[in-house]
Design goal:
Layout: E1 2-15, E2 19-26, E3 30-36, E4 55-61, E5 69-78, H1 87-103, H2 111-126, H3 133-145, H4 164-167, E6 172-175, E7 180-182, H5 184-187, E8 195-196, H6 198-209, H7 223-240, H8 250-256
Parallel strand pairs: 3-5
Antiparallel strand pairs: 1-2, 1-4, 2-3, 4-5, 6-7, 6-8
This protein binds zinc ion (ZN).
């Protein structure tokens, strides 16, 4: 059956002499692996539409229960041209598509997730500064959509609101497997628990509540906050997503900071 869908290119690799195998995240069918025959020939019909992170309109010859589908046509909707202009945008965009590939299953449609992906790449493409914040916002909302919303608003043990006072100087205790964080009073009873500063708790709350992903890029974090926020999100993903591994794109961030 010939089907048509919007999609984003998550991964691409060479195949045989002239073709490519491309992993797409599509609006209609979720993650799809397709073969683009002849995609490495000169003047091929796909042009630059198969570049990583491209937002495309794809025509696919799709058969049920087949691992590899056939891509018959692919036209660019938005290639997010500015992403390739600097390393922070590239590293952030790569982390987003790599994460999508890691957490989604083949042919499971999730329209909100597709919308989040396109919106996030748009932010990575156009943000004026703090581009990496778009990745943290993506991770927070990804967990939300997948049904693992962590609670950064109240202490999961005693229930008091998490703020400057309840977090205190000792920091909020991090217990992502229980789905949240602990006030300084409750976390002082747990030994060896990782802590998060009040500023980072506020940022995590903001990331979760921000309706516009571009707004989070207006906030400049200290190096300490960035580490705490990145570390918290990493722990949340590891604890909820089976078989989650460190992203390859993280090596690029190590070069940046
Ligand atoms: Zn408490």
């Amino acid at each position: 059956m010939i089907v048509e869908t919007e999609a984003v290119v998550l991964k691409t690799m060479k195949y045989r002499e002239t073709s490519r195998i491309v992993t797409l995240y599509s609006r209609e069918f979720g993650r799809l692996v397709v073969i683009a025959k002849g995609a490495r020939e000169r003047n091929n019909r796909f042009g630059s539409a198969l570049n990583l992170m491209s937002y495309v309109q794809a025509v696919i010859y799709r058969k049920e229960n087949r691992d590899l589908q056939l891509l018959s046509q692919c036209d660019s909707i938005d290639s997010f041209n500015h992403i390739c202009e600097d390393m922070e945008r590239v590293a952030t965009g790569m982390a987003v598509v790599e994460l999508m590939d890691a957490v989604t299953h083949a042919e499971e449609r999730n329209t909100p997730l597709f919308g989040l992906l396109v919106q996030t790449l748009g932010t990575v493409n156009t943000a004026q500064k703090n581009v990496v914040n778009a990745l943290y916002a993506f991770e927070v909302r990804l967990l939300d959509i997948l049904g693992f919303r962590p609670n950064f608003l109240t202490c999961f043990h005693c229930g008091i609101p998490m703020n400057e006072e309840s977090v205190g100087r000792s920091g909020a205790g991090l217990n992502v497997s229980s789905g949240g964080i602990l006030c300084s009073n409750c976390s002082s009873r747990g030994m060896g628990m990782d802590t998060v500063s009040a500023g980072s708790v506020r940022m995590l709350q903001h990331l979760q509540e921000a309706s516009d992903p571009a707004s989070v890029t207006r906030i400049t974090m200290s190096a300490r906050m960035r580490n705490e926020v990145a570390g918290t999100m990493r722990r949340c993903l590891e604890s909820h997503i089976e078989g989650f591994r460190p992203l390859k794109s993280e090596n690029m961030f190590a070069l940046l900071h």
